[in-house]
Specification:
The protein has 195 residues and is α/β, with parallel strands linked by helices. The protein contains three helices and seven strands; from the N terminus they run αββαββββαβ. The chain has a five-stranded mixed β-sheet. Strands 6-7 form a two-stranded parallel sheet. The protein is globular and about 50 Å long. About 4% of the residues have low confidence.
């Protein structure tokens, strides 16, 4: 039998490793900083101190009462001519609406604002600024149940025609109806939730 190798004795008390310092915030790239500064200069209520950016990405909040003006400014003065999409988020406490717009330099500006959750939630249409917003705004109506003021009447999108009225699948706390209801273009009658 071979003898066991001796191991080093551990001290009775171990020292804790040094706490790592939090990394410093990365500086905002120059082009992206100019976007933030331009909007904040024109709209002092913009959340400049909470803005974040990375290469070709800018995230900036503005109050709802100046949102359309800030969006129009971004398009007309800063060249953000393409509406990529609109995201609606139910945080449980409020709604956030994020408008993802881009310019010819490849910068994506995510301009957002918040609203309360009191029904009915009404937000303004951005169709006068971005003519291609129709389907994105219909998604907000159908999936979150907000009303988009100024959006022309039309079929619901993206939900099927037999989707139960008053069911908004992107709201916090939403539970789906019985299986098979609201799935696909069936001609079946709408079935209510079980009590």
């Amino acid at each position: 039998m071979e003898p066991k190798p001796e191991t080093e004795a551990k001290p009775a008390t171990e020292t804790k490793p040094e706490a790592k310092a939090k990394p410093e915030a990365k500086p905002i790239p120059e082009m992206e900083a100019k976007v933030i500064d331009s909007i904040a200069e024109r709209f002092p209520a913009a959340e400049k101190d909470r803005a974040t950016a990375a290469t070709r990405r800018v995230y900036l909040g503005v109050p709802g009462d100046v949102f359309l003006d800030a969006l129009r400014f971004a398009r007309e003065e800063l060249g953000f001519e393409h509406l990529c999409t609109i995201t609606g988020v139910d945080t449980g406490e409020h709604y956030e609406f994020i408008y993802h717009i881009s310019n010819s330099d490849g910068i994506l500006l995510n301009l957002k604002y918040k609203t309360g959750r009191e029904d009915p939630v009404v937000i303004p249409s951005v169709l006068p600024i971005y003519a291609g917003a129709t389907f994105y705004e219909r998604e907000l109506e159908g999936l979150l149940g907000v009303r988009v003021e100024g959006l022309p009447e039309g079929r619901q999108y993206p939900l099927p025609d037999n989707w139960p009225a008053g069911e908004y699948p992107m709201r916090k706390g939403w539970t789906p109806p019985k299986p098979g209801v609201g799935h696909g273009p069936s001609k079946e009658p709408v079935v209510e939730h079980d009590e």
